Amino acid sequence: MTTQAPLWYREKIRDMVRARYQSNGGFLDATMTRGDGGAGVVKFPIIGRVESYELSGAIQKIQNTNPDLSMAEVRMRDFEASAWLRVQDARRQGPNEQAAVGKMLSSAIRRRRDNLKFEALDKFANDGSAGVKTIGDGSKLIDVIDLMEARAQIRGSGAEEAIWNPLPTAQFDQLTMYKEFANADYVGPKLPFGDDNGLRKKTWMGIQFLEIPDEHFVFGTGAFGTGSAGNGFNTDGYIDLFMWATDAMGNEAEWDQETPSITVHADYEGSPMLAKVGLSAASIGILPEGVKRLRVKSQVRSQRIAA
User: Fold this and answer.
1) What is the C-alpha to C-alpha distance for residues 175 and 166, in angstroms, rounded to an integer?
2) Could you say which of 121, 146, 177, 270 would form a disulfide bridge with 242 (CB–CB 3.0 to 4.6 Å)?
3) Which InterPro entries match (predicted)?
4) Could you give all domains of the chain from N- to C-terminal order, each with its CATH number?
């Protein structure tokens, strides 16, 4: 028997439960274009360009200029997160403990949504035939000059939609050491979703910078998880960051269930409940000219910029 998740398994915020620090996910929602399709396959049409031609004045056949039309396709991938809940435990738990279980399950799906996007960006950049440009060799710290180069090439290609650049906290801190990044003359309006949730969001030179938890940055020789002595990053290596225009990357979800469904298993002792959330989604690179990989030196603390 499947029942609707009780209200106490919906997301609630209380002051008594202390969860281990982790990414709650969902930071990259709406940063990529939506696709279309069905039966587990999502499609993203790609069209070329049409040029005008000058009329000669003579009566003659037109010079047909059909645009190239291609299709990027990707198969959906399925994920779920689950947790067994004993009825005895549910009776003993208060609303805050129960809400924490639901929140952890929801966060697992949100993190997966973000990681699917990062995996697609990395795969696109590593595909030599795609032509995604890598800026930097990983030997230097993040620099506004590299960011401006990436932005200039994306805008120079004709992209007019929003440009996104998620950053780990240390790299975001490093950028604040540059007066150009901190100067209000360069800063745009606050992002619509830039509420005070502890993570910074900033518009600079038309780029939407998103500070998101370190655990999402897992590409490069100094990626998260390779560090030591309490550091998540290996400062002897590099990490790969990505900047992209919205329409240059595609993402679609056929099924996205964040609110847990509760199934009672009467054939088990105590009739425990199984809470599940799920996701069926996929991400893919579409337009290489709208994606740039920024290879920067891994760091865990800021460094002053020489005047």
Assistant:
1) 13
2) 121
3) Phage_capsid_2 (IPR045565)
4) 2-17+76-297 (3.90.1690)
pLDDT greater than 60 at residue 225: yes
Contact 67, 52 (CB under 8 A): no
Kindly report the CA angle at 138 between 293 and 154, in degrees rounded to 5?
25
Tell me the mean pLDDT in the region 52-69. 79
8 Å CB contact between 62 and 146: no
Whole-angstrom distance, CA of residue 161 vs CA of residue 159: 6
Residue 189: which pLDDT band, with cuts at 50, 70 and 90?
low
Q: Nearest CA to 202 among 177, 175, 239?
A: 175
Order of strands, sheet of 41-47, starting from the edge strand that comes earlier in the sequence: 36-38, 41-47, 69-75
CB atoms within 10 A of CB 234: 19
Report the distance separating Cα 257 and Cα 277, nearest Å.
5
Compute the average pLDDT of residues 69-86.
Answer: 89
Q: Which amino acid is at 227?
A: G
- Can you tell me the distance from the alpha carbon of 208 to that of 190, in angstroms, rounded to the nearest whole number? 10
**Contact predicate 47/69, CB 8 Å:** yes
Which pair of tokens denotes residue 144?
């506004």
Residues 6+ apart with CB under 8 A from 295: 134, 135, 136, 137, 138, 220, 238, 239, 240, 241
d(CA 6, CA 261): 9
Q: How many CB atoms lie within 10 A of CB 147?
A: 25
Strand 163-167 relative to strand 207-211, pairing: parallel
Q: What is the three-class DSSP state of 289?
A: helix
Three-state secondary structure along 31-62? CCECCEEECCEEEEEEECCCCCCCCCCCCCCC
Beta bridge partners of 261: 276
Structure-token pair, residue 257: 């269930």
From 142, 165, 174, 156, select the one nearest 244 (Cα to Cα).
Answer: 165
